[in-house]
Amino acid sequence: MLDQPFDIAVIGGGLVGASLVLALAAFAEEKKLRVLHIEANPPANSAVAADERHLALNAFSWQTLTQLGVALEPSRCAPIQRIHISSRDDFGRVLLDAKQEGVSEFGRLVPATQLRDALESALLNCSSAWLTRLSGSRLINLNTKTESAELTLAATDGLLTTVRARLVVGCDGTQSSVRALLTTADTQAAQHDFFDYQTSALSFNFKPEIDPLNTAYERFTESGPIALLPLPNRRMGAVWTLASAQATAALQLSDTEFLHQFQQAFGYRLGRFAALGKRALWPMQRLRAKPDFAQRCVLIGNAAQTIHPLGAQGFNLGLRDAVALAATLEKGDYNINVLQAFSTARAKDRADTLRFSDSGLVATQNTSALARIARSIALTVLETAPLAKRDLVRFGLGYVR
To answer: Is residue 24 within a helix (H) or strand (E), and if so which, with residue range?
Structure first.
């Protein structure tokens, strides 16, 4: 057993877990908070090191990360100043322009690897007086009691360690060990609503012939929705959603054939596509833990809710979870009533974001002639409705909850 009991044990070394620890740093030293950060993989070997995604950070997230001391290199981050929404071979489109909406940009595109490195750098600057980090340790058992929780951790060499903490925060992703162990221990705790869309998202980058000029594209196609996101050096990041079998097959194609099929799906609005980067595949699933808290334990980020990448809201939502939880924990009381109040306070934002992401995917799945006409009419109406466009923009910026 480690020498001292901890106030908070944060399980998960990913983007949301690291963000939560940094949010706790604002008051940890003053309140003599003892925080244990448990990571299954050492930072240098983190799974995100091979992550080909580019994360769309909205204005709230960018501001929050700056306040947390996360230094992102501007030259590697591209601003999103316009968003173009359309349906392939149909009429109607929506164009959102940041200047027209009174902001300089809607957000910024950041490589997942850069964000992970910047978070790790900020964590290394945290005082070791209140923060203990355990890398290469996996949670294998969790026993929650009225006053504390007991965790059993297994190191990569098989050595077991027992840890006590007043609160356990599970931010260990869609396959959360914390959620699974809570479900095993208590059938009323951390059940989840799970839905498999039977689709997968292909993530990659490429160079279009025409400069996108900081414009992001949402394109509804017969094969599935496509999101294109502007990157530095005139490149673009892409998220191409296909039926899972099609996505797996596309992953095996040569670069030339893959680009050809992608070009046929998107069209030639940006000219010819070239210089394909690495490809990665992400199954698209929706998960929501019900409830997302239990005695001396709470779930945030993808452990509490996982949404598909269309709309680029996953990390933004997880970051809002992290800062809201830190603000709750600053009061120093971690009993179940406090955790229930936190869950209730976060419920609307989570439900609205899940609904927003779902509606975008559902709107593209029906390819009948009637559905396509209805979708085109909806785009045309939205383009001519400034108040509706403004609400959409403010939701995307992350400030209206």
So the answer is: helix 15-28
